Amino acid sequence: MSKDSKGTTEKAIRVNPYAVPEGQHGWRGLGLHGNHKRKWYTVLQNEHVLVTALITLPGETSVRHSHESGELSIHYVDKFQPFVTWHPGGELHGGAQEQKQPQTADVVAELMSDHPDVKKLLEHVSHLEQDIKRLEKTLQQLVKPDPAPRLLIDILFPPFKTIIDDPHFPPKRTVTGQWYD
Fold this sequence. Notes:
Helix content is 19%, strand content 31%.
């Protein structure tokens, strides 16, 4: 046993997230259009830490958000392969990720159309880029686990502020403590 900052004796806490009382579990995303639903459970909440267990079903995603103090997130790729992520304070994560398209060889080739040899080379590079993208997509599909419910454990630290900042779900808002939506 240890003592907290006030001298109170602290004991280990063991929680079955599926057995927490009413008010310590619910659904997020029910009021949002699209696939953004997930079941949440408050596993532990005190002045030091907020631990939330989340269950997401295949095809469901969060909304884009960040946490003032950062977030430690643990989920399992499969039964025995945990995946741990640290999102530093202020880093946006979750939600639909927008991909910036790099300037392609076709655009560069058009800009350099006065140079036929360079244009041919850039067209070849463009075909290679397309082949690489196809191979990357195939590889991702081969290593991707079968669709299944996913359990995440998210750990927040004081001041427990979450900033929901998703362009698909305005307005931007701040939540302190457990996130109910």
